[in-house]
Amino acid sequence: MPTARDIMHPGANWIPAHETLDRAAQMMRELDVGALPIADQDERLCGIVTDRDIVVKCVAAGRDTSRVTCGDIAEGTPRWIDAGADVSEVLREMESHQIKRLPVIENKRLVGIISEADLARHLSDKQVAEFATRVYARG
């Protein structure tokens, strides 16, 4: 069975927790992505910031994107998967936490990220349909 490394988008970029949301938005535009993993001072995963987070938690709240940092809006413990985990573990992690992006870690460092698009490219139509049902189900 394929591993997380086999289906991930390699070379994912992260943003330091001290960087501002306007810089995160610029990076997202430059990289054509909708989310960036957030790294602490030791380059370890400490959260994820999405384009939606920037809009909802900052812009819509009347806050200044040049003054709010990525670390300020990071919530909870980020979910991640080891690069050697098999795809069934990837699906279980994403489905059980209803998440659409999953950072891939090896030796405590970010090596990639798995998104819905990666799943669609590497899984069967049946697996993708089951994933979508479980992640988007409201219950």
UniProtKB/TrEMBL annotation:
This is CBS domain-containing protein. It comes from Streptomyces coeruleoprunus. The lineage of its organism: Bacteria, Bacillati, Actinomycetota, Actinomycetes, Kitasatosporales. Pfam families: CBS (PF00571). Residues 8-65, 73-130 form the CBS domain. It comes from the Bacteria. Keywords: CBS domain. SUPFAM superfamilies: CBS-domain pair.
